[in-house]
Design brief:
By secondary structure, the chain is α+β, with helices and mostly antiparallel strands. The protein has 8 helices and 7 strands. The longest helix has 21 residues.
């Protein structure tokens, strides 16, 4: 019985400043393989389909359960996570490429610093007054907690930035994910104290005005986060904040 194989075409790049190129590999097929398994098979024996010895393919991964966002890449033209993408659900040959909205370090390994820099800019954290025990904080209403939990599922995978037409080399847009992060921290009983500061930072260059409302982000988000709802909510809050700043 002939062994079933998988053909995989990978867009590679040796250095951040070098030109990308494609290499095709053929590996044995196994049931329930995901893309990470495919890449590990290629790494064990980095030989192209034509029999040429090559360097092992570089990619990033950590949790292997769609939580860290590190293994995001473009799979058959769609940005998604390599750990949760099953081979048997894909058309062959499988094409793997790095996302285009992040600098490539090597092959499929990306520099996602722009996402974390965006979170720093909008102060996407809950500040506390010192490290000592100040007792229990204010409780969040249960109905608020339920929808806020949906926003907290964001794992900075970068898929929404890859899908957004307003995120490109000519734009400084922070990205769709920031809307929900600002909204999540602003609704927190303690985080609400810095609400105006977050809104002001997001109303600057590359902030909310740069969103074209294409809604690609909500369609591509692997966690189903209601990004367009957050966009509408932050737009309303920013309008109120702009009036406060103008007349304040």
């Amino acid at each position: 019985m002939e062994m079933k194989t998988l053909d995989v075409i990978i867009t590679r790049q040796d250095r951040p400043d070098s030109e990308p190129y494609d290499e095709e590999f053929s590996i044995p097929h196994r049931t329930n393989m995901n893309i990470i398994t495919v890449l590990m098979e290629i790494r064990k024996n980095p030989v192209t389909k034509k029999g040429k010895k090559t360097t092992p393919v570089q990619w990033d991964m950590n949790c292997l359960e769609e939580v860290c966002g590190a293994c995001s890449m473009v799979i058959n033209g769609k940005p998604r996570q390599a750990c949760s993408t099953l081979v048997d659900q894909l058309q062959q040959p499988i094409r793997l490429a790095p996302m285009t909205t992040f600098p490539v370090i090597r092959d499929l390994f990306l520099d996602r610093d722009r996402m974390f820099d965006a979170l720093k800019r909008v102060k996407a954290w809950i500040p506390i007054d010192g490290t000592y025990d100040i007792g229990p904080g204010p409780r969040m209403a249960e109905n608020t907690r339920q929808w806020a939990y949906e926003l907290s599922k964001c794992f900075t995978c970068g898929v929404c930035l890859e899908a957004c037409p307003n995120v490109n080399e000519k734009s400084d847009f922070l990205g769709p994910f920031v809307y929900s992060q600002v909204r999540l921290k602003n609704v927190h009983p303690t985080g609400e104290m810095n609400k105006e500061e977050r809104l002001e930072s997001f109303m600057g260059e590359g902030g909310l005005e740069w969103c074209g409302n294409s809604q690609n982000c909500v369609q591509s988000c692997p966690k189903g986060i209601p990004l367009t709802t957050s966009i509408a909510a932050i737009n309303r809050e920013a309008t109120v904040q702009s009036f406060k700043s103008f007349f304040g």
